[in-house]
Design goal:
By secondary structure, the protein is of the alpha/beta class. The protein folds into two domains: about 1-60 and about 335-365, no CATH class; about 70-335, Glycoside hydrolase/deacetylase (TIM Barrel, Alpha-Beta Barrel), CATH 3.20.20. The chain has nine helices and ten strands. Strands 1, 2, 3, 4, 5, 6, 7, 8, 9 and 10 form a ten-stranded mixed sheet that branches. Strand 6 and strand 7 (about 230-235) form a beta hairpin. Helix 1 runs antiparallel to helix 2 (about 35-60) and helix 1 runs parallel beside helix 9 (about 340-365). The two termini are about 50 Å apart. Residues about 1-40, about 45-65 and about 320-370 have low confidence and may be disordered. Bound molecules: zinc ion (ZN). Zinc ion binds next to strand 1. Zinc ion (ZN) binds near residues 75, 76, 142, 146 and 192.
Length: about 375
């Protein structure tokens, strides 16, 4: 707003300057005084100063509407599974420049398997190591064994109802395994099947997790904060069945529209499983991959920001659509003062024009006789 006003002021000032110049031409260089030249340069410098002020003010401007964040969460990333679908969906995030939080199962059940399994599947370890430092990928922890050893009223669970020490130790071991394998300490915890209890949350908070991402289906868990740990929910997209897959994408679009007009929600998580992006033969399903890309493109038209659950990488927000399509659109472009570059160019031009005009007049013969 300020920059626009400054820009208009600049145009007006330039107009005055131009008119002044025109009058001088009419006077045919008569009575050109040094004070006029100084005045021109002063106006030009003032414009330049105004442009710089505008630029600073725009950069520091506060958003007038709440920011809207979208987070993607990919569950069940584990050793000894097919890498192709995981690499395919990760490539979508790379191509789109959209971050994703990877929910890693540190110790999936295997016959006779001991030690840190994340180190024991060579191709998996190599691939995950290759993306560990990519800021688009957050390495989160998705349970420890992901076994249904403590079923909850909501369904299967690895943790529900277990003693604090058992839950704490399992989560601690998984956290240590991820750190050992990839040099990254996970700070986001995702309970398997989104089923856990308050003890799980307390254990995760005690272990330094700062984000606890679970599902809306848990009626007894209140979203908010616990011991400095943010507790939030997600909406699951994707399915093995083609029709069901497409249906979840359509539902996700509706959920997004609701989220955009909800003044109390700042982040919406879309959870999926990379293994759902396969066909009946287990091969990567390019149609499903395309649907994920289209969905991300749909989100981009809404001007949302994309974040990892640990909030350390945020992208997007530069493709805001018309204001009617959602709230929170304008926040995406806050800090980018579009007229400012134009104003800067205009002001610099005005300075050059002033100097050029001044030089022209000084080189022109004074009191050149052009009387009729
Ligand atoms: Zn899972």
């Amino acid at each position: 707003m300020l920059s626009t006003a400054s820009f208009l002021l600049g145009i007006v000032a330039a107009e005055v300057s131009d008119r002044c110049c025109h009058q001088n031409k009419v006077l045919r260089y008569q009575h050109i005084s040094r004070s006029t030249t100084v005045k021109r340069v002063t106006i030009a410098v003032f414009l330049l100063f105004l442009a710089l002020m505008c630029s600073t003010a725009s950069t520091n401007a506060q958003p007038t509407q709440p920011r809207k964040y979208i987070a993607f969460r990919d569950d069940d990333v584990a050793p000894f599974t097919s890498l192709e679908p995981l690499e395919a969906v990760n490539q979508v995030h790379i191509d789109e420049g959209v971050p994703v939080t990877l929910g890693i199962i540190p110790h999936p059940p295997r016959e006779g398997q001991e030690g840190n399994e994340l180190l024991q599947d060579g191709p998996f370890h190599t691939y995950m190591g290759s993306i560990a430092s990519n800021p688009l990928f957050e390495f989160a922890q998705h349970g420890y064994t992901h076994q249904d050893i403590a079923p909850s009223p909501e369904g299967p669970s690895e943790f529900y109802g277990r003693p604090y020490a058992a839950q704490y130790n399992a989560i601690k071991q998984g956290q240590a395994d991820i750190k050992e394998a990839f040099g990254v300490t996970p700070t986001t915890f995702i309970p398997p099947w989104d089923n856990s209890d308050h003890t799980t949350m307390r254990a995760a908070a005690a272990l330094g997790f700062t984000d606890y991402n679970t599902d809306f289906s848990l009626q007894d868990i209140q979203y908010g904060y616990l011991g400095g740990m943010r507790i939030e929910g997600g909406f699951t997209i994707g399915a093995l069945n083609d029709t069901a897959f497409t249906k979840t994408i359509l539902e996700a679009q509706n959920v997004t529209e609701q989220f955009l007009v909800d003044p109390h929600a700042d982040t919406l998580t879309f959870a999926y499983h990379y293994w759902a992006f396969t066909d009946s033969m287990g091969a990567v399903d390019s149609h499903k991959i395309q649907q994920l890309m289209n969905f991300i493109d749909f989100l981009k038209t809404k001007g949302v920001l994309f974040t990892r659950l640990d909030r350390s990488t945020v992208t997007g927000g530069s493709e805001a659509a018309s204001p009617s399509s959602s709230v929170g659109l304008t926040v995406a472009t806050v800090g980018k003062c579009i007229p400012t570059p134009l104003l800067l160019v205009g002001s610099v031009s005005a300075v050059l024009f002033g100097i050029y005009g001044s030089a022209q007049r000084q080189s022109a013969p004074r009191n050149k006789p052009k009387h009729k």
